[in-house]
Design brief:
- By secondary structure, this protein is mainly alpha-helical.
- Among the domains are: 106 residues; 84 residues, no CATH class.
- It is 72% helix and 2% strand.
- Strand 1 and strand 2 form a beta hairpin.
- The longest helix has 23 residues.
- It is elongated and about 90 Å long.
- The C terminus is likely disordered.
- InterPro entries: ARM-like, ARM-type_fold.
Length: 495
């Protein structure tokens, strides 16, 4: 039977809605396994369970759209619950449960069994932690389609002990087998993984009435607030604690990454118009603290925040401008994550800069320009220079096309051109040479008289050598057909 299941799983990707009859027959035969008795450590049961779970996982997209989807999904989840107890098959069974529960938009009676069994697996500290988190995701997916009141009550029962554990760690009162920093860090990482798993599985409930009122419990005050969604309620309770946790363990890179995972998981599910402003304040406070200490984690979170919290764009752009001003003034070496974040803003969210207060946008662009020129002028990191040159190209292209923020370029145009020519004198890879060449063309076309005067102030021999290099097909073929470059920059012969 195992070999038959394996062969069916191999062809599952080639099946379609037209094979509904065949899928029904396959599931009918699989249902016979519910009457079988398996021993948890039985080797044959493990192999059979893996093949069956892989088949059910591959067929999910077809089963969920069938006319008898509820019955067939109930059968599939029942089989997964049975094989969840088989040693070596638990992970496969949990993957099936998570997939089927996660694609439901309405409750099923079998989901109660899924929640109970997966929660029992999660609370058993003897089970592997990665599988406990996986089981908790199944609980979260099953809860996401339940009634809001039931969902909140259930999540409280799960989360309150975890939040208390994190609070004890923050306060230094966590009772662990070892009070070492590593032990406390491991406890934090696990509790944060719990939060991230639960938050990520909750779906936005757009059908909730905006006129409903619920009491949001807080450690500081009890007050009524407009009903949003479950994730927003969770985040409001967690954000102050997460900030304190970061302050106490600011040197732990893994802990900061896991904290940012929690925050990023809640962004899309939590944000609604009435909650954006409150969340933006808290998120920006956290990023203010970690942006210089942990650039990689902070910048990934910042990009997600910019994408989601559109209604709070002015506040976010103000913070971003401050971040880059501090990076420019306080950092001697620059992480690629900063360049990627700036590129994300300039490339995908240029309008945020246009509608922001001009002083804020100018501060950001000025700091970004300074950082890029420092990198191109001193760094030998090829990847960093490539990303910096692309960032500078997009920024100059947007400035010249929109005819805004031109002063950002004009106030340092000589230094900018000089840095570009100096970089071209080094062994630059093709993407860097192409980006810098296009920058020179954009500057020449936008203000040829100014560029000519800058050229005359510079080292003419060096500049002319680089002009020839830019026009050389061997170095930068796309610009070989531009014959007007030397004419634009050639010093005037009239005296």
């Amino acid at each position: 039977m195992e070999s038959v299941l394996y062969l069916l799983e191999r062809i599952a990707d080639h099946m379609s809605e037209n094979d509904a009859t065949a899928i029904s027959q396959i599931l009918e035969h699989c249902s016979l396994l519910l009457s079988w008795k398996f021993v948890a450590s039985q080797s044959g049961a493990k192999q059979l369970g893996k093949s069956l779970m892989d088949l059910l996982y591959s067929l999910q997209h077809l089963i969920s759209i069938g006319k008898t989807a509820d019955d067939q999904e109930t059968l599939c989840m029942g089989l997964a619950l049975m094989f969840m107890d088989i040693t070596g098959c638990t992970s496969n069974a949990l993957k099936v449960l998570e997939t089927y529960a996660g694609n439901r938009s309405s409750p099923l009676p079998v989901l109660d069994r899924v929640m109970q069994k997966c929660y029992n697996y999660f609370v058993n500290s003897g089970n592997p932690r990665n599988l406990r988190i996986h089981a908790l995701r199944c609980v979260g997916q099953s809860l996401a389609v339940q009634d809001t009141d039931y969902m909140l009550k259930s999540l409280d029962q799960i989360l309150i002990p975890r939040l208390r554990a994190l609070q004890m760690i923050v306060e230094g009162r966590m009772a662990t087998s070892s009070q070492s920093t590593q032990s406390l860090e491991e406890e934090c990482v696990f509790e944060l993984a719990v939060l991230s798993a639960l938050i990520a599985t909750q779906k936005p409930r757009s059908e909730a009435s905006k006129d409903d009122i619920e009491v949001v419990e807080s450690s500081q005050s009890d007050e009524k607030s407009p009903k949003t969604n479950v994730v927003y309620t969770i985040l409001c309770q967690c954000l102050p604690l997460l900030l304190n946790l970061l302050r106490n363990f600011s040197s732990s890179e893994i802990l900061v990454e896991k904290t940012c995972d929690v925050l990023r998981s809640g962004l899309i599910a939590a944000v609604q118009d009435e909650s954006t402003q409150t969340l933006a304040d808290s998120y920006c406070d956290i990023l203010d603290f970690i942006i210089l200490r942990h650039p990689s984690a902070a910048c990934v979170l910042a990009k997600a925040m910019i994408f989601v919290m559109v209604t709070a764009s002015t506040k976010i752009v103000t913070h971003i401008a401050t971040w880059f001003k501090n990076i420019d003034e306080k950092m001697n070496e620059f992480n690629e994550a900063y360049i990627e974040l700036a590129y994300h803003v300039v490339k995908k969210h240029w309008r945020l800069l246009v509608v922001a207060p001009s002083s804020v946008a100018y501060t950001f662009l000025q700091a970004t320009r300074n950082i890029v020129l420092k990198i191109l002028g001193t760094s030998m990191d090829t990847s960093l220079c490539r990303k910096s040159s692309l960032l500078l190209l997009v920024m100059i292209r947007n400035v010249t096309n929109s005819k805004t923020f031109s002063e950002v370029l004009q106030e340092t145009d000589y230094h900018l051109i000089n840095v570009i020519f100096c970089r071209l004198q080094t062994e630059a890879i093709r993407p860097i040479a192409e980006a810098l060449s296009e920058i020179l063309m954009l500057l020449a076309r936008s203000n040829p008289h100014r560029i000519r005067s800058v050229f005359q102030l510079g080292s003419q021999a060096s500049f002319r050598a680089e002009i020839l290099a830019v026009r050389s097909p061997a170095k930068c073929q796309p610009w070989a057909e531009v014959p007007t470059l030397t004419h634009i920059w050639a010093p005037s012969t009239s005296t």
